[in-house]
Amino acid sequence: MALIKWDAKLNVNVPEFDEEHKKLVQMINSLHDAMKSGKGKELLTKILDEATDYTLKHFVHEEKIMVQYKYPEYKEHKATHDEFAKKIVELRNLHDQQRLPSNQMLNTLNAWLINHINDVDKKYSPFLIKVMK
Ligand code: FEO
Prior knowledge:
Layout: H1 15-36, H2 41-68, H3 74-96, H4 102-131
Helix pairs in contact: 1-2, 1-4, 2-3, 3-4
The structure holds MU-OXO-diiron.
C-alpha cells in the first residue's frame, strides 16, 4: 500500500511542477514499498539515490522558472531548497555509514515534501499561473 496518496489538494496548478511532485511522491512510495518488502540494501540505495537526484533536479527547475519570471519570493524559496539539499546529503552520508535507521530517510523525505508543497510551493501558484499564461 502506498505511503502517500496523491491528492488534488497538493496541486500547485503549474502543470510541469505538479507532474514533478507526483513523480516524487511515486519515488517515495517505491522506497516505502522496497523497505516494507525487505528488499536488499543495494536496491534501497539505488531508489534513494534516484529520489534524491530527482528532488535536486526539481529544485533547479523551479528555481530557473522563478528567476525567469522574477518571482518576488525567490530568495526565501531557494533558501528552503538549499537547507533541504544539505539535509539530504547529511542523511545520505549517514545511510552510507549504516548509521541511519532505515525509515528515517523515508519519513524525512515524506514529511518535508508534503510540508514544502503546502507551505512554500503553493505560495508561487497565483504569481506563476498569472505570468506563465
Ligand atoms: Fe516543489 Fe520548492 O519544491
